[in-house]
TrEMBL record, chain B:
Transmembrane segments: none annotated. InterPro entries: AAA+_ATPase, ABC_transporter-like_ATP-bd, ABC_transporter-like_CS, ABC_transporter_ATP-bind, P-loop_NTPase. One of its GO terms (molecular function) is ATP hydrolysis activity. The keyword Transcription regulation does not apply. Residues 5-236 form the ABC transporter domain. The keyword Aminoacyl-tRNA synthetase does not apply. This is ABC transporter ATP-binding protein. Keywords: ATP-binding, Nucleotide-binding, Transport. It comes from Paenibacillus rhizophilus.
């Protein structure tokens, strides 16, 4: 290094010192921003509940219709303590998990079937379009007649919502695989089974995993609507029951529990996605 | 000994919704053991179609195709195919990609794995076995693709513009590597390319096709002096420039013919 260069850029040690101090600054700024976002988020939540409580106590909103937070949380606490909450929560969770897992699995299997047979795909196409456009909830009464008023028809209602969407998304990703990747394995004499398991399925793995996220939300819709229609237990049942006996505290507390549990389930799926895709 | 590749009056038509077109018509071709044949010609002359037919990926509409004296009925491990890009599977390690052919043909044993590792080392890829394709440069990835093709030990290699997506310098290096590797191992090769100077530098014979429909227009035998020199230096051999200009002129003529004979609109 000549002298002018040394003066301009400094020694290696001072340069790395400068670089690491800049890096520290950058990280500190990022941390501060994260904290600010978190603080505002928290304040919004507290503000919302405070406004709700105040409005109800001062009579700005009808206490009978909207209840108020302290009462709602007391209700949740009481139901937790006497164990009745766990019963309903367990049933709803079971239905959601069953609908979610089966929907993803069956939807993916259907996608595999129509990929395997282009003829089947052409035949089923209009039926899938019709079934996909249809509000599946309208089929609820038919499911109740077929499967009885209970667990099975709730899961089937959920499946009717999740399966076709899963099939369409996964099938599209099967078709979107680069044909040249297929050509590579075909040039080695691979049969359709090998093409599927060596190229198509692993290529589509991220798409399949991302349908998991969509299906979590869908499953909750299916289960709650299903419980509205038939159930004698579950969180959806508590909402409908609370509505019928005008116990809106029960309705609100069920809503809060659903929000909490659905978010937890979604986060779990996000975590699973991260683990599954981290090896790529 | 039968020719490695033998095409007898091969015709191929593409049938679409709007039209049917002849990609290749009544084409006869023989390629002998150890030859390096380049197919050049204007776009739409059926070069890639021809390669797919020889590979057994595409059954011709009419005519006979023989490889090593046997009729072709589908892809076989005797024939290796290399595409424009590496098309490595991103979720497989380099070794996993290189051994893909062995795995698909059910020959991935300890010996096969060892041979693949040696081939990788030969191509200057030692130490990258457990990397993933995303971590390698374009030239390295294409070398992995070459190893993948060679690992199943095919006697005939079909190269579909394997250098076209690379930077010029890397392209020249890889041309050299491929040509030398195939010559040393006594492989027969068919190369499809747009690059006339590449065709002359690596081949023993250059076949110029014309389009609409695809037919052989002219065959250029490359003099031994150029054919036996590594591609990088072949370009400096006396006679190279003359050959290039002749091929260029003929290519211009072939591209000008806007034949419609092969097309049936409908």
């Amino acid at each position: 290094m000549n002298k002018a260069g040394a003066e301009n850029t400094g020694t290696a040690a001072s340069r790395s010192e400068w670089l690491s101090s800049r890096h520290e600054e950058f990280k500190r700024a990022k941390r501060l921003r994260k904290r600010a976002v978190f603080a505002v988020q928290g304040s919004l939540l507290v503000l919302f509940f405070a406004a709700w409580e105040t409005a109800a106590r001062l009579g700005w909103i009808d206490r009978l219709l909207f209840s108020y937070p302290s009462k709602v949380f007391r209700q949740i606490y009481v139901n937790m303590a006497d164990g009745s909450l766990w019963h309903h929560l367990g049933i709803t969770l079971g239905e959601t998990a069953a609908g979610f897992v089966l929907g993803t699995l069956l939807g993916t299997l259907l996608a595999v079937a129509i990929w395997w047979s282009p003829f089947l795909s052409a035949v089923l196409d209009p039926y899938m379009v019709v079934f996909n456009s249809m509000p599946k909830v309208a089929l609820g009464p038919i499911f109740i007649v077929m499967f009885g008023a209970g667990f099975t028809s709730i899961v089937v209602t959920t499946l009717s919502i999740t399966i076709i969407v899963t099939t369409l998304v996964v099938y599209n990703s099967f078709c979107g695989v680069d044909p040249n990747l297929v050509k590579v394995v075909r040039s080695f004499g691979a049969n359709r089974r090998q093409v599927f398991f060596k190229v198509i399925l692993p290529s589509s793995f991220p798409a399949i995993v991302s349908t998991l996220k969509v299906n979590v939300g869908m499953s909750w819709v299916g289960v709650i609507v299903g419980e509205f229609l038939v159930a004698k237990s579950g969180l959806g049942y508590l909402i409908i029951y609370g509505f019928q006996v005008f116990n809106f505290t029960l309705v609100m507390s069920s809503l809060i529990i659903i929000a909490f549990v659905a978010t937890a389930m979604y986060q779990l799926v996000v975590y699973i996605e991260k683990v599954l895709l981290s090896r790529r | 000994m039968p020719p490695v590749v033998e095409l007898k009056s091969v015709t191929h038509a593409y049938l679409g919704d709007r039209e049917a077109s002849l990609a290749v018509e009544d084409l006869n071709l023989e390629i002998r053991d150890g030859e390096f044949v380049s197919l050049v010609g204007p776009s739409g002359c059926g070069k890639t179609t021809l390669l797919s037919i020889i590979a057994g990926l595409l059954p011709p509409s009419r005519g006979e195709v023989h490889v090593n004296g046997r009729p072709v009925s589908g892809p076989s491990p005797e024939v290796g195919y290399m595409l424009q890009q590496d098309y490595l599977l991103p979720w497989r390690s380099i070794l996993g990609n290189a051994a893909l052919g062995l795995e698909l043909t059910g020959r991935l044993d300890e010996a096969g794995r060892k041979k693949t590792l040696e081939l990788l080392a030969d191509m200057g890829l030692k130490g990258t076995e457990h990397y993933y394709p995303g971590q390698l440069s374009g030239g390295m990835r294409q070398r992995v693709a070459l190893v993948r093709t060679l690992a199943t030990d095919p006697g005939l290699l079909l190269l579909d513009e394997p250098f076209s997506a690379l930077d010029y310098q890397i392209k020249l290096q890889l041309e050299d590597l491929v040509a030398e590797t195939l010559r040393r191992r006594g492989k027969t090769a068919v190369l499809v390319t747009h690059d006339l100077s590449e065709a002359i530098a690596v081949s023993t014979r250059v076949i110029l096709l014309e389009r609409n429909p695809g037919r052989i227009r002219r065959v250029f035998e490359i003099p031994d002096r150029i054919a036996n020199t590594p591609p990088l230096y072949a370009r400096d051999q006396p006679g190279f420039a003359e050959l290039f200009h002749e091929l260029w002129k003929e290519m211009e003529l072939a591209g000008k013919i806007e034949g419609t004979a092969g097309k049936i609109e409908g």
